[in-house]
Automatic annotation (TrEMBL):
Organism: Flavobacterium crassostreae
Protein name: ABC transporter permease
Cellular component terms per the entry's GO annotation: plasma membrane
Keyword vocabulary terms for this entry: Cell membrane, Membrane, Transmembrane, Transmembrane helix
Pfam families in the record: FtsX, MacB_PCD
Family listed: Belongs to the ABC-4 integral membrane protein family.
Length: 416
């Protein structure tokens, strides 16, 4: 065992000498490994960070949450011209489902509307994501409040002029002042602030809660009616846990079909969008990104492998005389083999470590510049190091075998 530790030490010294004595050649040889490891680990780290961000953004939502509306979240077999003829879901359908649907925790009715400006005294915040919705949304999305409260069922049903502000909106209007009880203006109307949400951070899916405001949907319906083309309604359903989702979707579909008077054989004029289907779609895209990243990075690793093999063949050539002397003094073939294999692995690991270091630097820069946490996980560090070692092992095997099979007399003579 001591012999192999000494061998490893000597191989490390030879590898460092190769770096020091042939800086340009070694740099060019290691560049492929460095770029390859940089590319693969950067892609994997980006995908992992994206996964964590998606999980964080959707953590408050049940993946079985259903969005019932005239649009589909993903690709659809229904022709576009037919989809454009579908009617919007309406408030009566929401109340019908709320009162008759079994195995359901919560049902909410929301309007998608364009962004607006909100005002308090002389302060104005523009491009605010306005969310008119019934009070059940606070339970469906798990909204957390920093101060105050969310509006209740009575306020929601009557369309009371109350509003809940996202964290950034509250800061923009009131700074460090207490917002609860203050009046703001939206749609030319006065609304009383009754709650401020906890800070969420930037979201990957549309506007963050921080830049959103919530108000009773009936406040909007009383002023603009239900047939406003600028507003798109959606019914949000949160089923009870552990139910058969296929049976539940069939039950929702049948109730809406009956309410709309659709006959057997007629196609649905609505879409039942399950959040899990959307997340599966996102996971598929992320998986494809992983594959593409591996393919592109694989070419860099291939070039890096050739570079390591090249430098090892040159190293064998330069040390032919030394190999002959080692063999004449009793060094066995496997000793020579392991010596050059270790050297190839060490050289490749150096390139891999440089690549990982560059990913780490990039991660720090992106995290500070963007409102997005770019994470280099320990699993990716281990993977990068293992890949570098594997590339060194594969690239060094042929040079190491050729070195181990040299005849000592011929090697000494060639070296002279």
């Amino acid at each position: 065992m001591i012999v192999y530790f000494r061998l490893l030490k000597e191989s490390f010294v030879f590898a460092i000498n190769a770096l020091m004595n042939n800086k340009l050649r070694t740099l060019l040889s290691l560049l492929g490994v460095t770029i390859g490891i940089l590319s693969i680990i950067a892609v994997l780290a980006a995908v992992d960070s994206l996964d964590k961000k998606i999980a964080k953004d959707l953590s408050s939502l049940d993946k079985n949450t259903i969005y019932l509306m005239r649009f589909s979240f993903g690709p659809s077999d229904v022709p576009k011209w037919k989809r454009e003829q579908f009617p919007d879901v309406n408030y009566d359908e929401y109340t019908y489902l709320e009162s008759t649907l079994k195995d359901t925790e919560k049902v909410a009715y929301q309007l998608f509307v364009k962004n607006e400006s909100i005002k308090f005294d002389s302060k104005l915040v523009s491009d605010v994501n306005v969310i008119p919705v019934t009070n059940e949304l606070v339970a469906i999305e798990g909204l957390e409040l920093a101060s105050g409260r969310f509006y209740n069922a009575a306020e929601s049903n009557s369309g009371t002029a109350v509003i809940v502000l996202g964290n950034e909106i509250a800061e923009g209007l009131f700074g460090n002042s207490y917002a609860i009880g203050k009046n703001v203006r939206l749609y030319g109307q006065r609304l009383t602030v009754i709650g401020v949400l906890k800070k969420q951070g930037e979201s990957l899916f549309g506007d963050s809660n921080d830049t959103s405001v919530y108000l009773p949907v009936n406040f909007i319906r009383k002023r603009y009616g239900d047939n406003n083309e600028a507003m798109t309604p959606v019914i949000i359903l949160k089923p009870q846990k552990g139910i058969d989702m296929d049976a539940y979707k069939a039950m929702v579909s049948q109730k809406i079909r009956n309410l709309r008077g659709l006959k057997a054989g007629e196609m649905d004029t609505f879409f039942i969008n399950v959040l899990s289907g959307f997340t599966d779609f996102i996971d598929g895209i992320i998986g494809q990104m992983n594959v593409v990243g591996w393919i592109i990075s694989g070419f860099s690793l291939l070039v890096g492998g050739f570079g390591i093999a090249n430098i090892m063949f040159v190293s064998v050539k330069e040390r032919t005389n030394l190999i002959g002397i080692q063999k004449s003094l009793g060094a066995k073939n496997r000793f020579i083999l392991f010596q050059f294999l270790f050297e190839a692995v060490i050289l490749s690991l150096i390139g891999g470590i440089i690549g990982l270091f560059l990913v780490w630097i990039i991660a720090i820069i992106l995290t500070n510049v963007m409102d997005f946490e770019f994470v280099l996980s320990m699993s990716n560090i281990v993977l990068g190091t293992s890949l570098a070692a594997l590339i060194g092992l594969i690239s060094g095997i042929l040079p190491a075998i050729s070195a181990s099979k040299l005849d000592p007399v011929e090697a000494i003579r060639t070296g002279m």
